[in-house]
Design a protein that fits this description.
globular, about 0% strand, single chain, about 70% helix
Length: about 290
Amino acid sequence: MLDAIQGSAGLTLGLAFCLGLLVGSFLNVVILRLPPWLEWQWRRDSRELLELPEPYEPAPPGIVVQSSACPKCGHKLAAWENIPVLSYLLLRGRCRGCGGGISIQYPAVELVTGLLFAACAWRFGFSLEALAAIMFTGMLVAMSGIDLRTTLLPDQLTLPLMWIGLGLSTVTLFVSPSQAIFGAMAGYLSLWSVYKLFKLLTGKEGMGYGDFKLLAALGAWCGASGILPIVLMSSFIGAIVGSIWIAWRGADRATPIPFGPYLAAAGWVQLMWGPQLLQAYRDWSGLN
């Protein structure tokens, strides 16, 4: 079976795409349920620290145990209503219980995750690098979705991503241990320095600590040499997309815009094609 998969690029891509659809369905649960769960924990811990009375506050739905349901009417989804992308099409974007609209986020996250997983398989083939890149991709999709919805980048995702990257460097899967360690340090300190300087000059906070930790994680995967390309790519993409978003929504320029998705996109591109992009730039600029 493994030999057949390894010998067929089309089969490898197809399996990676199907895996991405399934994982994307789970990532939707993470994106929607993790922030309320964390906020509930923070409130509980704060009351305990301040020795305040403990009011009855039921825990929000867990990520794994509770089955999926319509957020509007509570209709429990049958198995056939949980098929990635296909169920959305069969239901025509409507809940079978109340007829309310189903967010386009569900099929979008599933489809994007499937395509990104297939891209990892196409780039690295049937290999340990592909498996690691798929895990890297899934965590970035989850973080991007949460940041877009809540402007939060939870430690429960950023820190494990960093430690996994450091751990994989011990077998030099993508970068060496020294590159991973210095990458994590450079990633965190670079944005932390910008944050401190911006706050010193304006008295405002330009970004959150979650961005520092995410860039540290990306540095652990891509190495210190990948930090500058990631920052440049994310800033360029963020400036363009952010300007379009502000113009479209008619928002004020002081409106906070999540930076995590742009860091994630740039980090993904750097892990996948960083050396090739650098070589292309050298060829174009005549630096060779």
